[in-house]
């Protein structure tokens, strides 16, 4: 459980920004119960700690069921997924040549056949439609291997996103037709980039004989090479509707013309713009008309855990390769030592290894919660996971630049291409609004779920200052979480409970909109720390070098 607690102390950093106007929370879109990942506000019809893990923590409420790290109860399930992943890993190692993918500009037929034979395009598709129907923990384990090349990951990622929204929002006819075709590898999907800032537009208008028509230009999309199935979003009088377009069903007057961009990275993936003119009817509508905002949010949210899993897989390979490099490269400080002996190298690798440890723990914890149905709403957790993912990716690049030095800029360096692929991928996945949305969603729930009243008396505020300051320094125990965990986790559980109390106190003060509150936020950062207050954790970096990489068992393998 200590894996899941490592980053809880940083929760306040994400909830404390952009919260000065709690009234903005009312403008957050309400999504239907179909949507699993979109940021939203919640009512208080049931205890919030039973519906949302992060909201419960922020409000200093505790649900003991969340202290159980979700795991497989049957060891056969663990062996099955490990066997599946082992075969996939060997198949990818034999068929993938990243230089050829970059040179040819697409995945080779051998790579595509490897993905098909290992049923990668159907991992999340229900068995009723020819898929495997894997759970989130299993999908995460699979996607760890797919980051062997980010073009391969992107291809599988798009297929998973499309299958997810078809499963949730598709009609019976749409599911039967398109999920089956996708599981068989006959569908090559492309999706509109949701957060496009390049002026693309797609409008639903009235065409000939009163028929509905889609007209779009400069619509940025990302998808499989030579895509034959598109997911786009059309505007009609201020409402957004999701449309699916199958090229085999287009009329003779319809057209979809794709212009490929010359991207910095991901050169084996079709990234570009489309111009389209197509007659559409109810069979082309996914979900209900006007439901596009919800589906686009689900499209974005459903890809975050696979993205995190791929990042974990890549980070493990990176640490293994850095271990080899640093153990062979002479030290820049001593004549007889190697780079792995330098404390600076150990510090850099320690920081990366701990971030990977935290991301992996959070990923499988969240995946398990969803698989077990323990958490009803995971929107905030999913967005925080995305932020951790970006942090790890950026650390991978910076750590390698620091340790490898000028060689990292050499095109012959194996990770030079990965740098470009990551940069391109991060530029497409825009998460800038999530920090504000996380904060607003949390504070909106806090405000609607408590009986808090604004303090208007200056005298009352003055009398309460000392008490509140003491509560920040010594919040005390309320839930005694340690009683529900292993004795070795006593201190970690106490720190978690202290963090819950402090966050709740800060949110309470924020509701008064006091200017002084913002100065108190800075004080919180002094109450937390990891490597800074625990220098012995540098041993993690030393261990990576000594053991040849990141050798900590997967959360799926560990019996918690």
TrEMBL record:
Transmembrane segments: none annotated. It holds the Pfam family Acyl-CoA_dh_1. GO terms for molecular function: acyl-CoA dehydrogenase activity; flavin adenine dinucleotide binding. Residues 101-185 form the Acyl-CoA dehydrogenase/oxidase N-terminal domain. It comes from the Eukaryota. Its cofactor is FAD. Residues 290-423 form the Acyl-CoA dehydrogenase/oxidase C-terminal domain. Keywords: FAD, Flavoprotein. InterPro entries: Acyl-CoA_Oxase/DH_mid-dom_sf, AcylCo_DH-like_C, AcylCo_DH/oxidase_C, AcylCoA_DH/ox_N, AcylCoA_DH/ox_N_sf, AcylCoA_DH/oxidase_NM_dom_sf. PANTHER family: ACYL-COA DEHYDROGENASE, COMPLEX I ASSEMBLY FACTOR ACAD9, MITOCHONDRIAL. Belongs to the acyl-CoA dehydrogenase family. This is Acyl-CoA dehydrogenase/oxidase N-terminal domain-containing protein. It comes from Caenorhabditis latens.
């Amino acid at each position: 459980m200590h894996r899941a607690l490592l980053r809880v102390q940083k929760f306040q950093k994400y909830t404390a920004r952009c919260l000065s106007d709690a009234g903005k929370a009312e403008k957050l879109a309400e999504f239907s119960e179909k949507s699993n990942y979109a940021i939203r506000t919640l009512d208080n019809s049931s205890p919030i700690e039973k519906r949302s893990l992060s909201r419960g923590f922020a409000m200093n409420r505790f649900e003991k069921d969340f202290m159980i790290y979700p795991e497989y109860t049957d060891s056969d399930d663990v062996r099955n997924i490990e066997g599946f992943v082992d075969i996939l890993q060997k198949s990818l190692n034999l068929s993938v040549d990243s230089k050829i993918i970059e040179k040819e500009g697409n995945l080779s037929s051998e790579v595509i056949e490897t993905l098909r034979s290992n049923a990668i395009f159907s991992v999340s598709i229900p068995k009723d439609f020819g898929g495997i129907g894997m759970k989130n923990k299993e999908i995460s384990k699979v996607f760890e291997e797919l980051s062997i090349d980010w073009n391969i990951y992107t291809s599988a990622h798009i297929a998973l996103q499309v299958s997810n929204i078809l499963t949730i929002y598709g009609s019976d006819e749409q599911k039967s037709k398109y999920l089956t075709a996708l599981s068989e590898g006959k569908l090559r999907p492309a999706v509109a980039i949701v957060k496009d800032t390049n002026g693309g537009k797609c409008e639903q208008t009235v065409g000939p004989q009163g028929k509905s028509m889609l007209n779009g230009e400069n619509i940025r999309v990302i998808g499989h090479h030579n895509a034959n199935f598109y997911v786009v979003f059309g505007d009609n009088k201020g409402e957004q509707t999701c449309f699916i377009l199958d090229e085999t069903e287009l009329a003779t007057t319809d057209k979809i013309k794709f212009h490929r961009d010359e991207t910095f990275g991901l050169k084996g993936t079709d990234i570009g713009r489309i111009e389209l003119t197509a007659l559409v009817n109810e069979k082309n509508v996914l979900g209900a008309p006007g439901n596009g905002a919800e589906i686009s949010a689900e499209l974005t949210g459903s890809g975050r855990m696979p993205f995190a899993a791929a990042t974990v897989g890549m980070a493990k390979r990176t640490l293994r390769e850095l271990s080899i490099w640093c153990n062979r490269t002479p030290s820049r400080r001593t004549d007889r030592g190697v780079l792995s002996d330098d404390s600076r190298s150990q510090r850099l690798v320690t920081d990366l290894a701990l971030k990977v440890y935290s991301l992996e723990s959070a990923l499988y914890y969240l995946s398990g919660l969803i698989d077990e149905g323990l958490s009803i709403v995971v929107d905030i957790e999913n967005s925080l996971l995305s932020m951790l993912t970006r942090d790890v990716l950026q650390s991978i690049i910076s750590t390698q630049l620091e340790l490898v030095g000028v060689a990292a800029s050499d095109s012959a360096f194996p990770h030079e291409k990965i740098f470009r692929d990551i940069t391109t991928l991060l530029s497409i996945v825009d998460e800038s609004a999530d920090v504000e949305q996380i904060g607003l969603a949390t504070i909106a729930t806090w405000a609607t779920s408590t009986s808090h009243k604004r303090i208007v008396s200056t005298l009352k505020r003055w009398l309460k200052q000392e008490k509140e300051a003491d509560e920040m320094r010594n919040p005390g125990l309320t839930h005694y979480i340690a009683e529900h965990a292993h004795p070795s986790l006593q201190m970690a559980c106490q720190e978690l409970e202290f963090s819950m109390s402090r966050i709740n106190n800060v949110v309470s003060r924020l509701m008064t909109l006091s200017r002084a509150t913002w100065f108190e936020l800075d004080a919180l950062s002094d109450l937390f720390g990891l490597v800074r207050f625990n220098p012995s954790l540098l041993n993690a970096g030393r261990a990576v070098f000594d053991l040849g990489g990141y050798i900590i068992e997967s959360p799926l393998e560990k019996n918690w």
